[in-house]
Amino acid sequence: MSAFLKVENLDLFYGDAQALAGVSLEVPRGEIVAIVGANGAGKSSLIRAIAGIEKSRSGKIQFKDKGISGLEPHDICNLGIGQVAEGRQVFPTLSVEENLEMGGMLPRARAGSKQKIGEIYAMFPQIAERKDQLAGTLSGGEQQMLSIGRCLMGNPELIMFDEPSLGLAPLVVQEVLHTIRTLNRNGITVLLVEQNVAVSLKISNHAYVLENGSIVMSGPGGELLHDDRVRQAYLGL
After folding, report:
1. Which CATH architecture best describes the domain 1-80+198-237?
2. Residue 190 and residue 77: Cα distance in Å, rounded?
3. Out of 16, 180, 213, 216, which could bridge 42 as a Cys pair, Cβ 3.0 to 4.6 Å?
4. What residues form DSSP beta bridges with 159?
5. pLDDT (tens digit, 9 = 90+) per residue, 68-90?
6. Of 156, 216, 209, 214, whose CA–CA distance to 180 is shortest?
């Protein structure tokens, strides 16, 4: 069976600096796949390349057997790939509800947008209580929930999470990770980039270790969690 998302031999440069070198990975439908690695390893560059924000120099990206390399970000979103970006990136001067409405403007999502807002408020009651509040005045955790909700408004089949726990309190981190697991159980495929390596490996079906722009290890999340090289390099054990 072909992969839901497949990346083959991806090379990405910023000027003369190579950010990704021959990266290949597969994300099966319905699974959580984690990308782990140190700061500067190329994790966010990989997410941005899949999303169409950065254009790769060579290699292929396929989603549901369709080549998406070179497509514009809005076209990739409309195929069913959503992104929860690092730093949340809500529209601070718009209300919570206006932020959600922005997420529902994709052609694939417009018909069911009103119903979807209701579903998101049911999922995140804390932002439902603040639907008329400016997004920039929300706490970090509330902004992350809004960012996830806005992504869900686009009716994605696969969501890429880029450092979803960054800057959040431990209790809020647990809430965000619980949300990711719940979305996955409800049928959404997840590509997770997360600095918290232990947590990433615990909740992922499969994981890839990225170092200096290249995949150096891969395997089931649980196996990598107990691999001595991973424990020494990323868990301080």
Report:
1. 3-Layer(aba) Sandwich (3.40)
2. 14
3. 213
4. 82, 190
5. 998 999 999 999 999 998 877 89
6. 156
